[in-house]
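DOMAIN: structural biology
WANTED: fold as tokens
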Amino acid sequence: MCFGEPSRVEPILRGCGFSSVLIAPFFGHSYFRHLPVLREIDATFGDLAERRDWRWLTSYAYTIVRR
């Protein structure tokens, strides 16, 4: 269940008895830190994904639930 999209995660967690689900997406990573051209392309694409809330492109996500 490593997804940043609420539509994929929420039904599973609600089925487990959780009443409240919050998913905080994070975009970006440091995989290309030593490759300047790829780093800049990836950062630009990550910024676009964050602005458009393309959760399917999240690098990481915190999921907070409550019973």
In short: The CA atoms of residues 14 and 41 lie 37 Å apart. The first helix runs from residue 6 to 15.
